[in-house]
Amino acid sequence: MPWQMFPSEYNIKPPEWQDRASIVPAKPVSAATQPHGPTVADLPTAADEANRARSEAAAAEAAMERVGEPFMRIYGRDQPHDPMVPIPLYSYPQLHNMSVLGLKLVASKLRDVLMLAGKSPADVLLSAQPDVVIRWVLENQVALANEAGMKVTMASFQA
Q1: Is the CB of residue 136 less than 8 Å from the CB of residue 122?
Q2: Which residues, at least 6 apart from 93, have a Cβ–Cβ distance to it below 8 Å?
Q3: DSSP string, 83-133
Q4: To the nearest 5 percent, what fractions of the chain are helix, strand and coil?
Q5: Rg of the Cα trace of the chain?
Q6: Which residues lie closer than 8 Å to 120 by C-beta, 6 or more apart?
Q7: How much is the pTM?
Q8: Is 89 exposed, middle or buried (0-12, 13-18, 19+ CB in 10 A)?
Q9: How confident is the model over 17-46, as pLDDT tens digits?
Q10: Closest CA to 125 of 149, 104, 100
Q11: Could you tell me if 108 and 126 are in contact, meaning their C-beta atoms sit under 8 angstroms apart?
């Protein structure tokens, strides 16, 4: 029969552990016996190489000139000195590839900016199907762009 411990024996320590005097510290190793130069542990691993490549790629990406999203600026009419309000313009593929939550966020921000600018956008139910919300965003972008003097249609946003 294999050896078996009972639950009452799980937390029992050997008697030598009760007396801390029996614990002897390890003997220090002299520097003369330690190896000199690189060891196997100092060689780069695959993870080190991947981290180095990742950091180099991030540095190269940060050094590249960023091309921002296209913005259109509208002016609020009830703001002091009529400051410009930037509105990001999204194409149909960008909106279509967004998550439902991201699409709702874009639509609600656009609605808020339009109301801030004194425009009355058509009502949109943010919980509607994504295609309905996408169409609402694109229609409002086209209307704003045409009002700003840009000659655009829904086809301009790849819809």
Answers
A1: yes
A2: 158
A3: -EEEEE---HHHHHTS-HHHHHHHHHHHHHHHHHTT--PPP--TTS-HHHH
A4: 50, 5, 45
A5: 33
A6: 114
A7: 0.49
A8: buried
A9: 666 666 666 777 776 676 676 677 777 788
A10: 104
A11: yes
